[in-house]
Backbone:
């Protein structure tokens, strides 16, 4: 079997991949990928691939006649998640899986770090040099909280949202989830479309973990920001394109939103002169929520475990199509 | 009964105090206190007090012949915690309680905010503007973690330490506690003096919640910092005087410590030109860990609940002497 591999791997990760694919042929692109998220180019070697591991070019997929399985090296599958591509996969019986399990723990902890940094006012507390008892000090103390009794609404409730809910519940937070369809096995109450406006109006913390797709593009638009509880805090750990950033900026400037914490933006990185960079209480990390030590080795291990399942014709973990 | 009240209260808190002490006489100092932690002055009205609520002057306590109960408005009881004062309390049969329960939740969440901000590299991530795939970005992602499998040693295991352990366990961290004597009801394994060096050598995260007393003064000295695991992170949520700050600075400069997160220092605030302010990876908040909305109302409620117990001769909550 030919496995086309277009993601940047550490030497350890590459060694693990070679060891775990003995008997298979590894094909690498002519232009090496620079990250696990790098935008793919079409590559002539791809045509011979039985399996693709990385971020294969969607156009090239249509022309790869032997392809049976695509294992995407990210949680997000934006560049594949549209009806035409799904139809092609169904027609050609190509299975698609992603790497959600590899990133869910780090993403959930990153989201939690945003929430607790917000309730403890870390950005301003770390800048404040003041004596006990001063007005500034009293204000800072009284503006701090604990999440107890506060309502957190998580939009998108896959592996990341579920893990985040597990981490939040011990704080005594009231956690609810929004997803298109409740499955019945969620660890928190679920609202679907009809309950969304009420849920947005109640939550003090709104955590967006939505994937980017044609249905979620600008999901958070001016109308949705107008529906949120005044003084709520908005977090984005999903994808930047799910937010209308002009509407987000307006919500921050009008102080309808108390703060925004974004790990993802549109584009990435956000230009230095983008108005969100100067917006009050807007905190941005550069798409690092999923990051963790030995990340590409984790990616390779997850792929290799799925490869064994693929060979044995067992159901794949993190299958998305 | 006369209740001497020397702490700064919000109007709501003062109203709650008046309502809950009907039939008692409230005595206020001539110089109003500026915070719940303010250093007390002797006040002539104190002599008539049956009960003291706040931070009464230790000298004045000796001269207040009617005094039966002191309810301290903080978790820390440093200014009272020495053998002479304890002997006086025993001799005069004065009960001393503190406000640990009021602050434990906020302190534990503050400590947790430090730990997750550290493992997610928030201080540098919030400053980094870089594209996916650049060396800086890869480095930032790979330097991030999740606490899973990491060892956290909590020194001092009262209400704050216990609550912190409860919040940390769902992350998959290995949590251990150090205290003078194990009680057997701790939620995590406990080490005492003989096991301390080994525990310090193993922990990636060392969380100091020790109170300040003659036994804990400079508990973290050069010898203890030399015993820690290289690359560990040090957190202080207890009291500044438990740390030899010269030794802490040396441990940061030599990179034996990867970082330090301090909510307490000695003195407070730390002067602007103190070398710890410039030390690498030293993050300081100005003694706000216990802060939360309606803080003084919480303090009053806790006092009033104890007042009912005191009147009914029931055991007090948070009794310390």
Residues:
């Amino acid at each position: 079997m030919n496995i086309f591999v277009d993601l940047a791997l550490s030497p350890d990760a590459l060694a693990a991949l070679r060891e775990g694919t003995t008997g298979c042929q590894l094909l690498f692109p002519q232009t090496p990928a620079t990250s696990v998220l790098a935008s793919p180019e079409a590559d002539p070697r791809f045509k011979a691939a039985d399996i693709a591991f990385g971020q294969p070019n969607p156009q090239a997929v249509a022309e790869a006649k032997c392809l049976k399985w695509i294992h995407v090296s990210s949680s997000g599958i934006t560049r594949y998640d549209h009806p035409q591509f799904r139809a092609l996969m169904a027609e050609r019986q190509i299975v698609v899986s992603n790497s959600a399990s590899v990133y869910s723990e780090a993403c959930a902890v990153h989201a939690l770090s945003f929430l607790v940094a917000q309730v403890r006012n870390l950005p301003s507390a770390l800048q404040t040099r003041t004596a006990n008892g001063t007005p500034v000090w009293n204000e800072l103390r009284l503006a701090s909280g604990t999440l107890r009794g506060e309502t957190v609404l998580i939009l998108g409730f896959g592996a990341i949202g579920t893990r985040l809910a597990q981490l939040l519940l011990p704080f005594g937070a009231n956690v609810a989830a929004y997803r298109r369809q409740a499955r019945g096995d969620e660890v928190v109450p679920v609202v679907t479309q009809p309950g969304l406006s009420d849920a947005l109006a109640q939550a003090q913390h709104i955590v967006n973990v939505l994937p980017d797709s044609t249905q979620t593009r600008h999901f958070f638009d001016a109308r949705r920001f107008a529906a949120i509880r005044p003084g709520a805090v908005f977090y984005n750990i999903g994808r930047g394109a799910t937010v209308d950033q002009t509407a987000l900026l307006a919500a921050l400037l009008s102080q309808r939103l108390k703060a925004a914490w974004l790990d993802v933006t549109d584009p990435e990185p956000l230009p230095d002169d983008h108005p969100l960079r100067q917006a009050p209480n807007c905190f941005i990390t550069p798409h690092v929520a999923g990051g963790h030590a030995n990340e590409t080795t984790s990616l390779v291990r997850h792929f290799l475990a799925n490869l064994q399942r693929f060979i044995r014709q067992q159901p794949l973990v993190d299958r998305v199509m």
Summary: The radius of gyration of chain B is 22 Å. The first strand of chain B starts at residue 2 and ends at 6.
